[in-house]
Specification:
Layout (H helix, E strand, L loop, with lengths): L1 H47 L4 H7 L7 H15 L5 H11 L7 H14 L4 H48 L1
Helix pairs in contact: 1-6, 2-3, 3-4, 4-5, 5-6
Length: 171
């Protein structure tokens, strides 16, 4: 009986490990898509409205949840408290305060570059910077989507298989 219970625990542990990996990929997928939604709104507002940077950042997070929206809000709050702070530096400080689970290097780099460019130039240059960031995030989103679809299922299956094998060896 102890062998059967140990075998079942191994199967459950393997399945849980596979599902945990799949959940990390799902978190990154959600993060990238939320960031794309906010940046699309930011780009649209840059072309249609004449808002200050703080108002612009807050407005593009309306109705948005998650760490990325909180980062944008904190960046705006930091700029209000310290008006002489560069936008790129305010974003970096907000980034340190709000870590996003699943955030990849590609997303981090694209957003840092965007905020460095948003702080300077004309409205047209800012809109171009947002468009360039969206293009970079689109590539990341496609990669994450592929990985999520194929790798997520595979990880769960491999975790289950590893659990079954360990259970058989334990029995």
């Amino acid at each position: 009986m102890g062998g059967a219970a140990g075998a079942l625990l191994c199967v459950a542990a393997g399945l849980a490990a596979g599902m945990a990996v799949r959940e990390r990929w799902e978190a990154r997928y959600q993060l990238v898509h939320r960031a794309q939604d906010m940046l699309a709104r930011l780009r649209l507002m840059l072309t249609q409205e004449r808002l200050g940077l703080c108002e612009l950042l807050e407005e593009c997070t309306v109705g948005q949840e998650g760490c990325m929206a909180q980062r944008f809000r904190n960046t705006a709050a930091l700029l209000r408290r310290e008006p002489l702070l560069a936008l790129g530096e305010a974003y970096r400080q907000a980034e340190m305060q709000h870590r996003c689970p699943g955030e990849g290097l590609c997303e981090r780099t694209a957003l840092r570059q965007l905020f460095a460019e948003l702080g300077t130039g004309t409205a047209a240059m800012r809109e171009q910077a947002a468009a360039a960031c969206l293009r970079r995030l689109k590539q990341a989103a496609e990669e994450v989507e592929k990985r999520r679809q194929t790798g997520g299922k595979l990880c769960v299956q491999l975790g289950l298989l590893a659990g079954i094998m360990a259970g058989i060896m334990l029995w």
